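G., the chain you wanted modeled:
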Amino acid sequence: MPSNQAQSQTAATGENAASAPANAFRRLVELADGTTSRHRYLREALACIARVFGSPYATLSAQYDSEVVSEEFHSGQTSPAFWREPVRDFLADALADGEPHARLLSAHHAKLQIGLLSAPFTGRDGEMTGGFALVCPVTRTEVAALAAHLQALVTLAAHLADNLNRPGDSRHTSGASNHALAHAATMESPEEMAFSITNSLRNKLGCEQVALGVVHGPHVKIISISGLDDVRQRSPGAVQIRAAMEECLDAGVPLAAAKEHEWAEQDSGTSHRLHRQWRTGAGGAAVASIPISVGDKIAAVLSLRRASTDGFRREQIEQIRQTVEPFIAAMQLVAEARRGVLRHLGGSVRDTVKATFEPRRWGRKLAALMALAATIWFAFGTLSY
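Predicted structure as tokens:
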């Protein structure tokens, strides 16, 4: 291939992949909706992702209980044997570390550069089940963006594969989750996704206001209020809503404040002070907050306000929770997949520090203190010549 043709093909491939086209995410969801076989889905997803990156060779390895999936994809004129060993060795190294890897290969004075990229598979429980690796044309300036895009696509594919062949999951539930993932994958940020959720719910439910907050430890941060382009965290209205959200987070169940006869059948104890204060501040409107769980943890809180005459019913609250839950899981998943390199590094450091200093980790604490003492001595200590 002439060098100028190779260079133009590289630039085009990098531009298409780095732009993260929404149809790639949608295609992965369509593939999952069209099959009940996990093995077949992973084979088709591998080919789909490889084509997005213009890859001549890609491979995946995954294990689900007793089922082992090992597939490869090849296109172009080169023999798959040419790529097989280096790419699979690269994937083995990445699986040993459990982290995304990227390696740039180029000959001296060559304009065409080749990149090896890998990304781990993680299931819904957060455990790594395998990995994905490919070779693709890339330049030094594109490698970070391509690696992040690959991680997003592989994370989505792994989550969809985890939904398949899972006993107890209905096709309706799986389809709702897949639709949520496809919708979230087209968004630029969690805030954009939250804005879409709150405004859609306000229109469909006839609410005056809908707010969504994400949970950070014992606190909740509001990321969207319907009708507002920007959330001012310290405004009186936002403060009241956040207080009600955190009251709901503490209770772990839906809470509301409305006319006693409207809410009595849902909650006989109308002692939720912060929700009553929010209702008073809203001019007597009916207000409610719903905890949204991902796995066994509350990940977000949805708060709604509507005319007092409409109120909220128990079955309506549960229906809203079931509708929103897949989108919160998808928003959380895609946000995690699209983290930059620095945020991934910061998260790893934070998790390591947290694990080191948690209760009953005396061995780790002692090792950390000894390492700190050695570092201080090395920097400021003295030693006889």
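The longest strand covers residues 128-137.

Shout if anything looks off.
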